[in-house]
Each structure stands twice: as structure tokens, then as C-alpha cells.
């Protein structure tokens, strides 16, 4: 069985949203609390970072270059060097109480971004989508911490998790990608890990980072546990597939809110890990935008 290995000598505070660029064979991710987007070229080992003025919960690569980024105050477009060029929309939550968290694109290249409700007094977070015309729509509410976004290859199903509530949902999508009624797909006990960020493989299986659980897990389309892979750190945050054959799983982890003693005992907390898999993953499409040259 393959083993999880550190990608390179790096430890962040809250790395999230790993995103593979198949065109350049580059891994991107955000460190939310450091307000940065990082890149790492696997062939050369070159590591770079872009700094922003706010926390970046999630982002996606754009077809014409640059990023679409969900920052605390709203969703923005950037150019290739990372400079903000346009504000798409405000944060539909109260930005003082909810920052953006997990997100990504569906098979049609639309951008989804969910929020995390910091007071944790009720399910006040939400999930929104930005379409090609840059129109933003709130799709789902009744969430405490939006996570686990992934789509089936045929774009008929959207998977999401609510990490603090220990649940993974599945939502049917119609031919236009509009969501139907969300249903509980899998629940987890209040111990031994909570479902965080996720990715889908080419066999329709769902890979989940189990926060507080020291492991990642692969589930069948019916929710059956197929594989588990242990990590030397407590809190994986998200996974994505990449590599030349899309058979490398990249795993982000965090050291946020960890005591110094735990960091000394588990110094790789906050590192990125890789795992060779037997099955290929799905490429994340770039954000597709109408008339990009005029924006």
C-alpha cells in the first residue's frame, strides 16, 4: 500500500483548497489565515506565494489566466500576477461573522463558494455560485461550516459536507446545474474525525479529509468505506488529485489553534502530503467566464 509523504519542506497555518493545474503541472493552495495563495511546480520544486489583503477561503483558476477568489468581503477576479481587477459580489453573509471557506468549480466551469459561521450559535452559513455572466446566487443555507464540495463526472450530483455538524450531503442537479433537494448522504459520530474538504475520482468515489481524525477516507457512490489512509498529523483539511496521470492525491493539513506541545510532537502539522492512488481523479475545470476580454 502506498504511503502518505510530505510534498516538500513547508508548514502553513491553515492550508486549504489544493488545486491542480494540469497545463503547467503546478499545485496551488491557499493559506487562509496568512492571506496567501501558494504555488508549487512539481518538476522544478519552485515554490511561490501571492499575498492578499484578506483571508482567501477558496479560489479557482480562470480560463484566461488569474484566479477567481472568495475573500472575506466578497468574491473577486484577479489577473495572472494576482492583482485584483474586479469585484464580482459582496459576501452574502455578514463578513464580520462569516468568512468564505471551501469552494471550487463544477464540470461546467461555474464557481461555488461556501462560508463558515464563526459564532456557531446556529447554522448561519451558506453556499453560493458564480455563473459565467458573473451573476452570484445563493443555493443553500442551513449550514454551519461549508466544506467537502465535489461533483460527479456527469455533473448530476453535487456533494458537500458540513464539518462542524459531522455530515456529508448529496444534492441532485438538473440539466442546467440547478440543485434539487439536498439529502443526507453520510453522517459521522461525534469522535474520530469530521468530514472536511473532498475530491471525486473517475470511478465516482468520494475522498474526504477527516479533520480531527488523522486520516483521509474513500467512499463508494453508495457511501461504503473503501479505503482509509493514516496521516502523522491530526487535522487534514482538503484533498485534490493531480500529477501527470491524475493519480497523485494532494492533502493539505493545518496547525491552526494547536498548542505548542502538539506542534512539537507533530511538527508536520500544516504540511502538504502526497499519496499515490490506483485510480485517477477528476480535473477541476477552470472558471469559465463570458466575454472575459472586456472584464
TrEMBL record:
Residues 14-254 form the SMP-30/Gluconolactonase/LRE-like region domain. Keywords: Metal-binding, Zinc. Signal peptide: none annotated. Binds 1 divalent metal cation per subunit. The active site is at residue 196. It comes from the Bacteria. This is Gluconolactonase. It comes from Hafnia alvei FB1.
